[in-house]
């Protein structure tokens, strides 16, 4: 089966969907509401499951060239600098860290020229038995399929899933930044009520994030950089240096939300993908990775089924249990790692765990989420 799809959203999930469609012989038009294509945010890491999805998309080599190995999951520390667990210098690492813009660029360069339309905010989606019509700023398009990859506040989800609950505030907030500081291996520092994450992201830069609890969403400060420095206080180096090296205007402050489980990711010929379907907290580092998985699985279903509707049913049956379980786990992890009450028990447990057992748990196949293997997509040379 081949056809034409409209992808709503030009972020990581939307571009991955377009590239996956290209690999199975479909055509696609990506509608991005922003006037210029880009990726908002700072840094992230991708786990082995996401790296396998990138390989299935044919861009693993380019992605690995853009990313940097990070030992964040192996280097666990307390605010005074003591290690709960520490990576050895010869330890392999399962995680690859990126500036979000670098991974976005890798995907963008792989999508065929002419497939992306910017300044094209979607306003309406109408479908019938034969196809879907999408109205957007600038006109209308008709296609066999619509893939909504337009984020946690998805316009398409609001239109076609009107009873779906709004994104849920999780009682946590995060400050993010990129600093010019080279040579950091990556680490996570667990403190009472919050944690500080560091990833190297290439070209002499490091990404950092401080996640903590907050009473209500929307609380902002005139000087965000000074506020996060105040909250960190005397935490160990290089944390104060990272904050100090970050330009004030580059400090991002976000409130953390996710989506309650949807009963389906599919309505007729429309499929939700990525954050539009299963936005999750960042506490398992799986948001973008699950979007990449979605793209590969959806393309495999379209390549393997005789009709769009059957392919979307297969996609929904495959993706919904896994992504909703991952989102549930991330929500629980976030509560645990920002709980002052649980801090002492959690750090004691990590400290007492034998190092070989800890390393086994953070190996490439160390947990069920990371062990995922992508379905095989038809190669460009062999597809019909």
From TrEMBL:
Signal peptide region: none
Domain of life of the source: Bacteria
Alphabetical keyword list: Monooxygenase, Oxidoreductase
Residue ranges that the Swiss-Prot or TrEMBL entry lists as coiled coil: none
Boundaries of every FAD-binding domain copy: 5-327
Annotated spans, Disordered: 319-339
GO molecular function, one term: monooxygenase activity
One Pfam short name: FAD_binding_3
Stated name of the protein: 2-polyprenyl-6-methoxyphenol hydroxylase
